[in-house]
Amino acid sequence: MAKRNSKQFAVIGLGRFGGSVCKELYRLGHEVLALDIDNEKVSEYVPFSTHAVQADSIDERALKSLGIGNFEHVVVAIGDNIQASILTTLVLKDMDIQNVCVKAQNLYHQKVLEKIGADQIVHPEYDMGIRIAQNMASEKIIDHIDLSDEYSIVELLATSKVHNKTLIELDVRATFGVTILAIKPDGNINVSPMPDDVVKKGDIIIVIGHKNDVKRFEDEGL
Ligand code: ATP
Question: Which residue's CA is minimally distant from atom 8 of ligand 1?
Answer without folding.
Answer: 15
